[in-house]
Every structure is written in structure tokens, then in C-alpha cells.
Hints:
The structure holds 2 protein chains of 2 kinds. Chain A has helices at residues 15-21, 36-46; strands spanning 6-13, 25-31, 58-61, 64-66, 77-81. Chain A is of the alpha+beta class. A 5-stranded mixed beta sheet of chain A has the order 2-1-5-3-4. Chain A is globular and about 40 Å long. Chain A starts with 5 loop residues before the first strand and ends in a 6-residue tail after the last strand. In chain B, the strands form 3 sheets. Chain B has a 4-stranded mixed beta sheet with strand order 1-6-8-2, sandwiched between helices. By secondary structure, chain B is an alpha+beta fold. Chain B has one domain: Aldehyde Oxidoreductase, domain 3. The model of chain B has no long low-confidence stretch (mean pLDDT 97). The longest helix of chain B is centred in the middle third of the chain and has 18 residues, at 59-76.
Amino acid sequence: MDVVNMNHVKLLFFATLRERAGVKSMELDVPLDLTIQGLKNKLSEEYPNLKESLKSVLITINREYAFDEAVIPQGAEIGMFPPVSGG
Amino acid sequence: MNFPTIFSITEDEIDLNNLLAQVTLTSTGAAAIFTGMVRGETSRGEAHETDYLEYEAYIPMAEAKMKQVADEIRERWPVIEGIAIVQRIGKLYPKTPTVLIACTAAHRDTGVFEAARYGIDRLKEIVPIWKKEVSPSGEFWVEGDYTPRPGE
């Protein structure tokens, strides 16, 4: 696909997701109409290590919680992590 | 009146006296402070020992969500004067304070205890911080059980 018609996004991984991904962050080009569910499917296929973690993952778009049906906005910063355990 | 709200993620020691001074106004007569620390020996549930906890955070989002928790406290208890919410991250050993929530008010019967309780409960639900527990028998990530809803 033509890169001009792609959305360049940044993924940030934390805790178990970071350890399984083996990196803190990655940048990738995704289709303009890709949803969070679509992104999860794509990552499950391309990074089998992440597949199990993606079932209960929390997702954020630009530092707000986001859900499966959300379409990823242009240039989004996407956080991926397990349920939080601060305190 | 301008009420102080402090929220931060830090690798430094939590300075209770300094934070308390920052949320104390001339009109303040009561402070409820919750602090959590690393527990070296756990007896509830499956008994076990802990060598240390290693905390990490999605810092800019965590600070924004701490601000949100403070806003929610003020919405529910408008009489609350100062609020401090601080989480320490990094490698933390037993007996070390890891988190502090302080709420102040004019008097103790204003909901100030409940406000601090709400603060720590909400932090554990929506603020993106995680801890890995390292024990003599291995290490594992502690995972919460709360799934934020849209708008949280």
C-alpha cells in the first residue's frame, strides 16, 4: 500500500507487554481506517509472543483509555499494558 | 480560594512532611494521609515473602490520571482543601513507602478520610503504574482486576 495513505503511529508497551514485545516502543504505518481491534489482530499475527497478553490488554489513544471499535487517529500515541497495579 | 493539588511520579524518597506542608492552608485543621509500603512478609491468602518490588509507570498519562483522580475527589467532597497524590517508582524494598495520598480540610468530620480512601482506590483502578514482585521463589508482574470504562 502507498505510504502516503497510511497512518504513522507510535506504540508504547508497559509491564508484561513490554517484556513480551522485547521493546519499549515501536513505530509503524497502519491503514487509515484501522480500529483498535484491527491493530490487536495485526499484532497477534505479526508478534505471536504478544498474542496471549493482547486478550486482556488495556489500550490508550493519546493517553486516554480506548476501546476495540475506536478508529486510530492520525499520528496517535498508543499505549498497551495489563490492568494497572500501582499503589 | 486556590486549593493546592500536587500529583507526581518520582524516583525519589517520598517526603511526607514536605508534602503535608504543601497541602496545609491557614484554614486547614485536618489531614487524612494514606501511605502504602512494600510488604516483606504476606500472610493473607497465599503466604509468601517479598525481596523487593519494581515499579514502572506510563509517566505523562499517570500524572494526567492522578490529576483526574484529584478532580473526582473535589467533585465528591468540595470541602477538601489540599490534595497530594505521589507514587514512587523504581526498585523498592520492604518497609519503603511507595505511594502517598493526602487530603486536607478544615475539620475531620468533612469526609476527609473518605476522600483519601477514594484517592488510593481510584489510583489502583485507573492510573497506569505496574509493579513486578521479586521473591525468593521467582518474579511475577502484579496485575490489577479493573477495566476502565469509556470516559475514565
